[in-house]
């Protein structure tokens, strides 16, 4: 299943308009395929997305030394957000915070 509408990006655009903080939905790229997370346990989800993201080389300079806010619509285990944050920190982001609009059990 693939999403046709990026809810997280739409939410990030609203936050950006209210805060004046720019949005770049193309900082990260997926570098390995991952299985759907829907029926996976927390530990399986973490393994599934481990190393799945990296900062795109073309924008690495935009990340270094910066505070980054990841925006997502729903967080379940946090595995995907953690994997994305690790990729940003490997690219020398000064700090990564997460803003989610719903938390699933």
UniProtKB/TrEMBL annotation:
Alphabetic keyword roster: Transferase
Gene Ontology MF: a single term: transferase activity
Domain of life: Bacteria
Residue ranges constituting the Phosphoribosyltransferase domain according to the UniProt record: 20-103
Record's keyword annotation contains Mitochondrion: no
UniProt xrefs under InterPro entries: ComF/GntX_DNA_util-trans (IPR051910), PRTase-like (IPR029057), PRTase_dom (IPR000836)
CDD domains named among the record's database cross-references: PRTases_typeI (cd06223)
PANTHER family: DNA UTILIZATION PROTEIN YHGH (PTHR47505:SF1)
Family: Belongs to the ComF/GntX family.
Protein name according to UniProt: Phosphoribosyl transferase domain-containing protein
């Amino acid at each position: 299943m693939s999403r046709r509408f990026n809810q997280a990006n739409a939410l990030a655009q609203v936050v950006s308009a209210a805060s004046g903080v720019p949005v770049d939905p193309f900082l990260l790229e997926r570098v390995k395929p991952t299985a759907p997370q829907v029926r996976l346990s927390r530990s399986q989800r973490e393994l599934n997305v481990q190393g799945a993201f990296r900062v795109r080389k073309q924008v690495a300079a935009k990340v270094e030394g910066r505070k980054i806010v990841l925006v997502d619509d729903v967080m379940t285990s946090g595995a995907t957000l953690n994997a994305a944050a690790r990729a940003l920190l490997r690219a020398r982001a000064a700090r990564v915070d997460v803003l989610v609009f719903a938390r699933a059990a």
